[in-house]
Amino acid sequence: MNLYLSNQKRDRDLDIYLEKLCVSQEEFEQINHADKKLLLIGGGLSTSQLLFSIKTKMKIVNIDFHPSESVQSNRIVSIKEDFIKSSMFVNEFDEIWALYSLPLYSPTKESIHVFFAKTIIAARPEGKIRFYPLEFDKNNKMSTRDADYDISLLECTETVLTCLKLYEQDGIKTNRMPMQFKDNRIEESVTIVLNCSELHKAQINDQMKEQLILYSTEKTSYTTNIII
Description:
Order of helices and strands: HHEHEEEHEHEEH
Number of strands: 7
Radius of gyration: 17 Å
CATH architecture: 3-Layer(aba) Sandwich
Helix content: 25-40%
CATH topology: Rossmann fold
CATH class: Alpha Beta
Strand order of the largest sheet: 3-2-1-4-5-7-6
CATH superfamily: Vaccinia Virus protein VP39
Number of helices: 6
Strand content: 25-35%
Largest sheet: 7 strands, mixed
């Protein structure tokens, strides 16, 4: 699979993330502190851009196939890995951002389930997971397989909707913000909000680990390091 999409820029600056992921100025001010931690999934060279460099104060982990190596520091760390295959983060991040990483880089339906389970485990008990876009076409033309992707956008959208419904429960709420794109195409920005105690989060993590075992099997070539 061509995971390094030539038509997708991977050096988006902070303002693009805030706009596409619907992060308000008030929310940004709440997270932009030295004791907060942000995970960028597929952030590419974004953390080396001007606004990320000068306007952020939180700790940032950028996991990408080809991340920036010029900003390695105690505050901004780049990991050269595939998030789906990487080691597990547990209760570590206040915010998790994925811009054009889901569903566009997902080679199988199973990998989308793994993405959701791993991000939920990685988020803190009151964390937020944001991704963009969730795509719809009023003329239902997204069933055509795009040369850049292993599964069609329509399949991606259907699987993401299944995951949102499957994993939403007490302590996990999903917000979707529609954004019009051209005439018949609609893109949505999705925020998954966690609001639970540490004990409840541990129970949710156990459920997500069961999903990882279910979907990280011979059905997909994607495996993850699962520690139970």
